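#structure-requests
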Amino acid sequence: MELHEHTALELHRLLQRREVSPVEVAAHYLARIERLNPQVGAFTTVTPEAALERAAHVERDVPTARPLWGLPIADKDLLRRAGVPSRFGSRAFTDFVPDDSDELVRDVDAAGAVSLGKSSTPEFGLPSYTEGLAGPPARNPWNLSLGAGGSSGGAAAAVAAGMLPFAPGSDGGGSIRIPAASCGLVGVKPSRGRVPSGSGLGSLAGLGVAGPIARTVADAALLLDGLVAPLGYPAAHRFAVRAPGDDGPFLAAAIRGEGRHQLGVMTDSPWDEAYEIAIDADARGALDRAVAEFEAIGHGIEQLAPSPEPGYAPAFRTIWQSGAATLPVDGDDEALLEPLTRWLLERGRQVTARELAEALSWLAGFEERVIRRFSSFDAVLTPALALTPRPVGWYDPEDGERNFAQQVQFTPFTSFVNVSGLPAITVPVTETGDGVPMGVQLIGRPGGEAVLFALGAQLERRVRRWQRHPSIW
């Protein structure tokens, strides 16, 4: 059995028993990247020499008790790693090499992980697909004519193609869950405040958090434990405010997969009042299969009545555009930006302080309403995506308004979870007639990651999707 065929948890155990070394593991995955990345476009930068040096250092000098000891990962190219090009998916940063590393990068290093390079992302992580002018698109390993989703599209493509055992990503409106669902993987958006170095508490409206993309629920829990507590629990939180309840470890909940719960099923979205949202038959089929499996296990199931939110679309658009207004690009460099980014930046810099304050206030009220609406359920089930994974080139490259609408129609069930600060997990369940995986999303209570891992593990055991691989594998 080759190393990449093991789950991350199995690989972790092999490393801990010294049946394989961090250098051997890194070398194996680097060879796969060299062979497969030209077809998939998962990596923007590969650092083989630095990776092998790092693996030798981990083997020699880092305690084996560290949660991610010797396991390969990639840094999403929105993160700075000292001495490695950080392009943020943009032609405006083609030659940028930072002197310092971001907190999340320092934390995965502290946890004992070995970075093999930078995973691809769209320009500044703004779109929900990974197809930009700065490099080749991240393609879906299940069908290379389809996109891998975004903005953690490179990370998902790498894991689905067996170029990494798992990968950290970031999620400000679905950027972990969208590519995970597109590529038949498990993606976890943690509660706001859960991951100390990717808490969301420093981002506009608290949207963007760090989390794992993995092949199995247990692998995702293993990586999340490493992100939350790189040196082992208890976690070293950096803000006075943090996610409710206890931190992990979450791996135990994912392995046990125990409990019976009350689940809601939601098929409306807060975008319904502003855009024409239609759930594709394959997306509906995945949801129906998940409901049937959970009912067979013995969970209570209840359909949620629609709850229109006509103010959501304008408020979220204001936040998304305002976030783009802060991009470190000015003057002549703006000509290097892609049309969508330039549209968002220009609109964002026109937003007044009053408009921004009103949008933030409205979304805070929305968060309270969502939590109250979901309060009688342990988790709420939705489609992961409304449509099947989109073909490369499907999104309008010039018209910002149309492009934004296309993104909403593809994935209307993700951004409101960021606004609400809630945890969520996507799990692959079925596949289309062409063999492309389709999944569902489970949204938890505030701080409810452990229940989501348990539910995800139960569903995973029923459908056993993780044992399947794309032909490129």
